[in-house]
Amino acid sequence: MKLRTKITTLVGLAALASMGVSGAFAQTLEIVKERGHLRCQVGAPTPGFYNLDSDGNWYGIDVAICQAVASAVFGDKSKLEIQSVTTQQRFTALANGDSDLLSRTATWTLSRDTRLGLDFMPPNFYDGQGFTVRKDSGITNAMQLKGAKVCVTTGTSTELNLTDFSRENDLGISNVTFDDFNVRDDTYLNGGCDAVTADKSALAGNLAAFPVPADHMILPITLSKEPLAPAVRQNDSQWANIVRWSVFALINAEELGITQANVDEMRANSKNPSVLRILGAEGELGEGLGLDKDWAYNIIKNVGNYGENYDRFIGDGPQGIGIAREGSLNALWTNGGLMYSPPMR
Amino acid sequence: MVKVANQDNNVRIRPKEEFNFFQDKRVRSVFYQLLTAGTVGWLLWYLASNTTQNLALRGMNTGFGFLDSVAGFDTDFKLIEYTPGVGTYLDIFMIGAINTLLISFVAIILSTILGFFVGILRLSKNWLVAKVALAFVEVFRNTPLLIQIVFWFIGIFSLLPVVKKTIDLSFGSEMLLLNNRGLYFSTPIFGDLFWLTALALLTALVGVFFLRRRARKLQNESGAQTKILLPSLALIILLPSFTFFITGMPLAWDIPTLQGFNFVGGASLPPSFLALLVSLSIYHAAQIAEAVRAGILSVNRGQTEAALAIGLKPGKVTSLVVVPQAMPAIVPPIISNWMDTVKNSSLAVAIGYNDIVSLFMQTTLNQIGHAVEIVAITMAFYMTISLIISGLLNIYNKRVQLVER
Amino acid sequence: MTIVRAQKTPDRTPPLSETSILGWMQKNLFSSFFNSILTIITLYIVYITVSGIYIWGIADATFVAENRRECYNNSLTGACWAGVIDWFDNIFYGRYPREEIWRVNFGGLLLVLWMAPLWISKVKGKIFIGISVILFYPFLAGYLFSGGEKGLFMQVMVSGAIIAFIANMLNVLTSRIKGQSLSKFLISLFRQSNASDKSQRNLILGVLVISFAAVFFWQTGWSLEGVVWTKWGGMFLTLVISGVGIAASMPLGVFLALGRQSKLPVVKVLSTSFIEVFRSVPLITVLFMATTMFPLFMPEGFVLNKLVQVILAIILFNACYMAENVRAGLQAIPKGQSEGAHTIGLSYWGTMGLIIMPQALKHMIPNIVGNFIGLLKNTTLVSIIGLFDILGMLRSISKDAPWIGLHKEPLIFGAIIFFIVCFSMSKYSRHLEVKLSAGNKH
Fold this sequence. Notes:
The complex is a heterotrimer.
Chain A: H1 2-19, H2 28-35, E1 38-42, E2 51-52, E3 58-59, H3 61-74, E4 80-84, H4 90-95, E5 101-107, H5 110-115, E6 118-120, E7 125-127, E8 129-134, E9 149-153, H6 157-168, E10 174-178, H7 181-189, E11 195-199, H8 200-207, E12 216-218, E13 226-233, H9 237-256, H10 263-269, H11 273-278, H12 285-289, H13 295-303, H14 306-314
Parallel strand pairs in A: 1-4, 1-5, 9-10, 9-11
Antiparallel strand pairs in A: 2-3, 5-13, 6-13, 7-13, 8-11, 8-12
Chain B: H1 25-57, H2 89-122, H3 127-141, H4 145-156, E1 167-168, E2 176-179, E3 182-185, E4 187-190, H5 194-222, H6 229-246, E5 251-254, E6 257-259, E7 262-264, E8 267-269, H7 271-298, H8 301-309, H9 314-344, H10 356-368, H11 371-404
Antiparallel strand pairs in B: 1-2, 2-3, 3-8, 4-5, 6-7
Chain C: H1 16-19, H2 21-28, H3 33-59, H4 68-74, H5 82-86, H6 88-93, H7 101-115, H8 126-146, H9 152-177, H10 182-189, H11 197-219, H12 234-260, H13 265-279, H14 283-297, H15 306-331, H16 335-343, H17 348-378, H18 390-397, H19 408-440
Helix pairs in contact in C: 7-8, 8-9, 9-11, 12-13, 12-15, 12-17, 12-18, 13-15, 14-15, 15-17, 16-17, 17-19
């Protein structure tokens, strides 16, 4: 009798286990709607992009993307569960369905786009690797770094770029690798390295926190192109469209002069058809995405446009890290930058 | 039930064993074992099939072929030849594995010595010394190692003088230099006839061995103690140095010299190595100190008193009577501490020492993926080392048990 | 001939070393030349350490500031504790909603109150207290911490827990005041002391059913706001992970240890290899495997949250260490005990459960406390895989815009917290060890 119960249990377990096998990744939008909130993946706190404040809230320009997508789907930016995932797990966690969206300063490269089973979205920040050096070291050009020790953080393409640069110019630079950028910067500040290398946005942000920022400078050279972009799982074009156009909506809103403050007024009074279309007062743009017509209005109402977020988190805002936007790649295309959105019509 | 019948005849009738399939002990034991094996086997098969299915579904490639592909990144500290862009991921694995073994080995030796030292200081009659030793043990035992490692690295080794103000630890000969880029030391370059000096040293060692044997035999026979320390030392020092001078001093030093930003030549250990070494050694020394103290306290006080009564000096009492008896209680915890040292060296990743976890499980995994294989290889590596160490422990335990009985 | 003194000989004065400070110093610090040198060197080391820490951590330190720049303006070399103070809530409770923090505190307080009677003398029925904690507290705490809608099962368990807790508190009162356990007190209250066992039992059951119904009805009236696990963090998360880890690894550890000593070769080999495999790899690789590879092991579409994965990994890992503790405890029990139990006809499980385990448990307690300390310290590794436990929070301070780069002070603060917790626990375990070993000497 006992034996039979055990066998039945086993068979039952096996049946239960084999039940789960089905095409579960098909419709992310359906899954998200059913769950009632969006699962958005960021990384360990990184100034400017995703960060915790002392009240335990996430903020940063990549968090804004998560909030924008949540607003587009639910009309409510708080229907969002932010997951902080390490660099090692980021692509797996997206691939296995743990998260719906990855918004964590991942560099868009060909091999990642093709090999890891994910699709990259339009970049929301253009970065490039650079060097910080002490002013009194007399280095003004990266070619003077011959035989130098350079501090770098592990687990990113930064290490690879540094080695490539050193090999290309025969500089014999030796990498001093760290897990945590604070330890890296302290080592540099104490003279353990001659230079620090990282993405320039990070360099600028960290430099501002040095005891005497004026003693250090960022070299003009840019080692690499780092288009930082959100990513979603491959083979779900509906979901990819939603995320892609959420990013574009942020940029487009800035171009059209729609801000968090004036969005209601613009929707009511604007005479510009582009503004009316994007805010859902005219046409049915949301339908194609499988969303309601207020989706972009909700994004701007809840999150603001791209420029506002840049100022808040990357620029000079109270939570910002003080990186100028003017003249950089992150300016709007109308100001000579790369931030460009296809027309929304 | 045993029924004893017909006691007069002294004949025992064996009870009739009724074979009941469900009550039989052997059948049940076989059944339980089959059940366990079956469950575990099914579980393993189930997990494996899920994994292959998931991997296929996500288009993640598997296999160990990636070990042969070329790695593009460079590392700061390596003991084998490696050129980025030429070396493979297998080389990276080797560098990491060797670095882990190196740090663990040195840390094990240091922590054991320091642990014995502190453990004995804990029992010192000097009140202040005993209390400071106690504070040392408690502070380092009760805080997470991860915090300690980061503290030693940032708080101590990063704050050493910069390159231009290097400290010379070898009193002006520039053989041993310390700055916040690491510890630089000269490496010997052996000449042609150096092997003769080595041979002389070997001969001297063999000589000392025989000297000791003779002295012990003498002591066993007559009880007389012969002093062999001085003659042995003389043999070990004089014979090789004599050969060394006669063959024309065939030894040169590669001395580190400042070129550009850094010292070139000789060999060096990065500060991350030093910080990890110090923190691992101290953390585990604190654990070992407790084991040593407990072991020594476990030796009956009568032993010490008796040894003192027969006129042994206090130092000899500790080394000849107390410690040897305490050893069976001290060694097993120490060896398991060694195992922990190896495992804890994986925290190196926090301060950028290039151990196997940092190089292989972090950087390599990031560059190339293959999570399953990389984690499996890393775990297998640690398992092998731990099994070797626990093998040592088992051998020791067997020996001690045999001696005791 | 005998000589007997009429008066007691006057006491000799105690030696100088026992009475004066100078004498004490002479005996304990400067008894020999070597000892004096040792004392002076040690004093110097202590002075350097203490004065350095004092100047950095207190004299030159900044305690009130808006951001790190203000700290620098105050002193470039001193500590900046203001950042740590600003982040207190995050460090202890993580991202838990600020207005709900009382739930965490309340949950902790309940546990303390519930367990406290175990240490109070004259309290009756301590075994029931232990069982009720293990059976009910996890559900009550689980609901308190995570909130949300209560399912029927949760409603039953929460009501049960509330009853058990109240009964426990009343039991303490009756034990201390009347010297009776709660059930005895109830029986005498209803003047049933002389009634039959059966009617006494019925009375107790009746009281239980009535109070359960009342509590059940009452608790349907309210529910707590849901808090998802991603908002858990800080010291709270550290304690939850290590607490659940230690509690759940105990039974598993017992089974593994018994398996390792089993006479059935298959069971023995499997348990031994399981224990040895997990004991031979670093926890960080196990955690890494749990978070990266666990999803690959599971059937497609089956998603467990990361916290559960981490806790499962820690339970498996710790169970192996627990198994070794249990084995050590089992080995300390003389063989005669199990032989004796066998002779009187107890089965294997009867022998183990009634005779061996209760005795072995006593031997294991100090080791289990030691294991808990180790686990608590090891739990900080979850910060490496991206959970915001106390160390994860401490490390995040240095990334927050106002405090960017501030990372030494948080680490040292963390070290102090851990020291306080772990040190007091290890002191307690040593005290227990002494007490238990005193009890063993008949």
